[in-house]
Amino acid sequence: MKIGQAREQPVGTPVATEAKTRAKSDATAGAAGTTRSAASAKVQLSDAASGLLAVGPTSEVFDAAKVERLAEAIAQGKFVVNPAAVADKLIDSAHELLSKSAR
After folding, report:
1. Does residue 45 form part of some domain?
2. Distance of alpha carbon 92 from alpha carbon 98, whole angstroms
3. pTM
4. Residue 1 lies in a domain
């Protein structure tokens, strides 16, 4: 993963391009007087997603000053990665995911 300046233009995928083309043709067909029935779907959010939505934008979860300090340390080459800590967190995450899928 490269951290730095974002690309000036987003990279399009063939699927995304095809969907945009289809959406434009659907809009044109709708303007011409033809109608389409909208498909309906039932969506159920997981507990984790519901929790994230409940936090909302007023939460103190995001620390912009910390992000700025880290970005500056990375840019200056002063940021040091602790591989043992990263490995421990990956293992903890894997255990958590496996325990959730076993339920």
Report:
1. no
2. 10
3. 0.34
4. no
Q: Alpha carbon 53 to chain centroid distance? A: 14
93 in any annotated domain: yes
Rounded to a whole number of angstroms, the CA Rg of the chain reads 22
Residue 4 and residue 20: Cα distance in Å, rounded?
29
pLDDT digits (tens, 9 = 90+) for 45-93: 888 888 777 766 555 678 899 999 999 999 999 999 999 999 999 999 9
- Half-sphere exposure for 57 (CA within 13 Å, toward CB): 0
Which two structure tokens, joined as six digits, stand for 55? 């936090």
Residue 51 inside a domain? The answer is no
Please tell me the chain's helix, strand, coil percentages from 3-state DSSP, rounded to the nearest 5.
55, 0, 45
Structural domain total, the chain = 1
C-beta atoms surrounding 66 within 10 Å: 9
Using an 8 Å Cβ cutoff, are 44 and 38 in contact? no
Its domain, for residue 101, covers 66-103
